[in-house]
Amino acid sequence: MTTAQVTWIKDKQFVGETGSGHGLVLDTSTQFGGGDTGPSPMELLLLGQAGCTGIDVIYILKERMKKPVTGLSVTVEGVRAETQPKVYTDIALTYRLHGRGLTEKDVVRAIELSETKYCSASIMFAKTARIRSRYEIVDDDSGARWEGNIGAP
Predict the structure, then answer these.
(1) Which domain holds residue 139?
(2) Which tens digits make up the pLDDT trace of 97-109?
(3) In total, how many domains does the chain have?
């Protein structure tokens, strides 16, 4: 079982602590009565998705496929419903990879496996949101660049 706890500090600020002992400040923007001293809970959900799929993609490419990945960043943008509950309805992920000899086929396969089989966050979000993914690959040796979309645009 995974556990987490938040403790109210003041206004709309909380300190969160995970069962593994890691902590962070949660807040909201001043527009909504917070102090803007930390990420909002909804921002953390997007960060969690980016981290979840990023860990998967690195593991699949480096450990399972034995590909020489030297860098990965995952950018996520989310659009929320206008009415309550304001769930995410549209999420766009951009994977930026660096490596030597990475192929589009391998990168696409790793991302697809993450988003449809391994990343629990992406699979949960897919229940309420349209998820669109794209990738950018830079070869460290030649400087060649490839980019594309995964699945439906």
Answers:
(1) 41-150
(2) 999 999 999 999 9
(3) 2
